[in-house]
Amino acid sequence: xxxxxxxxxxxxxxxxxxxxxxxxxxxxxxxxxxxxxxxxxxxxxxxxxxxxxxxxxxxxxxxxxxxxxxxxxxxxxxxxxxxxxxxxxxxxxxxxxxxxxxxxxxxxxxxxxxxxxxxxxxxxxxxxxxxxxxxxxxxxxxxxxxxxxxxxxxxxxxxxxxxxxxxxxxxxxxxxxxxxxxxxxxxxxxxxxxxxxxxxxxxxxxxxxxxxxxxxxxxxxxxxxxxxxxxxxxxxxxxxxxxxxxxxxxxxxxxxxxxxxxxxxxxxxxxxxxxxxxxxxxxxxxxxxxxxxxxxxxxxxxxxxxxxxxxxxxxxxxxxxxxxxxxxx
Length: 329
Prior knowledge:
Helix content is 46%, strand content 22%. By secondary structure, it is α+β, with helices and mostly antiparallel strands. It has a six-stranded mixed beta sheet with strand order 5-4-3-2-1-6. It has a six-stranded mixed beta sheet with strand order 11-10-9-8-7-12.
């Protein structure tokens, strides 16, 4: 009996141990499966949210870059229009010239008037033979901003009186490429484009005069010589006196072709006059004290000015030229 009980007890003990092991193993596997199921769902959700967030950020970045490209508009040398060129030059002149006539041309809230002149008379750097005047709309200033543009893009800046016959030299010269680069650098290109749309442009052609038909180059040259005599005098000698004195001294004067014009002298110091366009250029020996020196002086007179001062002596001028000793004849 004791042996039988002992055998049954051993058998029962084995079943108990096996059951415990099975329960432990099953529970462990069940917990592992539960943990995996529990953790896998939020991970998928996190990944989905993260991808969506990245996609949203990428889309926003592309949109921002696209908007940025639309906002930044750059002017180009080959693509800029005449009106935009005028406004860009106005901006540069206002910013860097230091000239009163160029102030408030770009920053002015009102519109600008641009006068395109089909000539560049009295401007020492004529560009391609055209000149432009810039003025605020409604302004009546005597001296205005002006510029010329050369074939190489060189922009010559002036402050001029359009009604004056005097010669003007530019106070500043800058290439248009640099002006455009400066406008783009300071992000003024859109403002230039906007202002150019409201720019009032008018074209002025050169008015033909009857002076060329009434006077020869020689007559203009002799008038320029007489004007020089008046200018270098003490102020007492008038135009009529100069004409009369030359009539009386004509037998002692020499007239010869020189440097594309003519020179006049009384045997010593000569004065050379040359007609070019609407101007007469004069080269002469300057005064040194009470006598003539050896250094050259230069004067420029407009035909219109000479006609105003000596046009009434037209017949006397013709007589002088007919009697004067022509060295080259």
